[in-house]
Amino acid sequence: MTVGEGPPADRISVLIADDEPALRGALAELLGQEEQVRIVGTAGDADEAIELAFASTPDIALVDVKMPAGGGPRAAREIIRVSPTTRVIALSAFEDRPTVLEMLRAGAVGYLVKGTAAEEIVDSISKVMQGGTSLSTEVVGGIVAELTSQLRQQEIAEEELEQRRSQIHRFLSGDGLTMAFQPILELRTGSMVGIEALARFRSLSLRAPNEWFAEAVQLELGVQLELATIREAMRALSKLPDDVYLSLNASPRAAMSPDLPKALGELAKRIVVEITEHEAIADYADLMKALATLRAAGVRIAIDDAGAGFASLRHTLQIAPDIVKVDISLVRDIDKDRGRRALASALISFSDEMDMDIIAEGIETKEEMDTLLELGVRFGQGFYLAKPGPL
What we know:
It is a single chain. By secondary structure, the chain is α/β, with parallel strands linked by helices. The chain has helices at residues 21-32, 46-56, 71-82, 97-106, 118-129, 137-172, 209-218, 222-234, 252-255, 259-264, 284-296, 312-319, 328-331, 338-353, 366-375, and strands at 2-3, 12-17, 37-43, 60-64, 87-92, 110-113, 134-135, 177-186, 192-201, 245-250, 271-275, 300-306, 323-326, 357-360, 379-380. The protein has 15 helices and 15 strands. The strands form two sheets. The chain has an eight-stranded mixed barrel with strand order 8-9-10-11-12-13-14-15, surrounded by five helices. Helix 2 (46-56) runs parallel beside helix 3, helix 4 (97-106) packs across helix 6 and helix 7 (209-218) crosses helix 8. The longest helix is centred in the middle third of the chain and has 36 residues, at 137-172. The radius of gyration is 34 Å and the shape is elongated.
């Protein structure tokens, strides 16, 4: 780092920061010959440039965009921080438009390509000193094009986001939202003990229900969409026999919503709320308080997809559900797979010990059902027994 002494202070004081000694020296010599310019010092990296700016508070800092100790953007930000009156002009040997934009975002008010004539550099310094900006003609067109492209991309992204949000709001209003129902049967007798409500979404964009729910979560509308489907499903309860319960899916976030008990109303005693275990739960204490409120109203709690989700055993122990639903991944081909039978058997023994009912999901063959009966499973659902559909 070198510090210049220079003539009177009414001249424009300039700091030069570039990691190439030859170019740094040549630029200092070139500008030093201009009567209106006073070189206060030169620096070879970002740290030196920041230190020198703090000590000399120059009017202008000519900063190379690529230099050691963090590069030009860091140097620009820190120089402006330690010497707020200093105006930064970026220097580069590259017509690298992303770098130009990064320097401008860091606070630079000018951009010059290395090799620019001394007269143009001095002219740029004068413009900047008068409160303006200065960009080399070599990069102006590119920057304008880049900014225009970025703005257009941002507009397109915002339009897409608004379309996605509008679609979810359409479902929230009930338009395009329907329910399918899949019976839950007592396996030995075939009698229906419950029925699970499953959301279906009608849209030109054909997507699975879980994808729509994931989309709603990204738009911070996940709980609202879940509650909308629950309210829609509740309309079917009056059409079910009195001894058949309605099973509703709810994420932990939806289960903790104060609007859920209101949605269930006075018919809560005929409801099973299935808590998904496909996400980590940050605070089981809050979830347990919410479930206690539901249980006080008569709601039974089930764990959905047990054996397939996040921290399955801990999840089950913490929630202590009334019902455990064995995931389809354990049920499929259980008659042919000793490992699946062993895992299912362990889960069934655990549930029996804890006085929890077991429901096997995704039963697709008679052989699977027979094996589950042999293992002690009383209840099940799946395409072999009944497909989801209207009531």
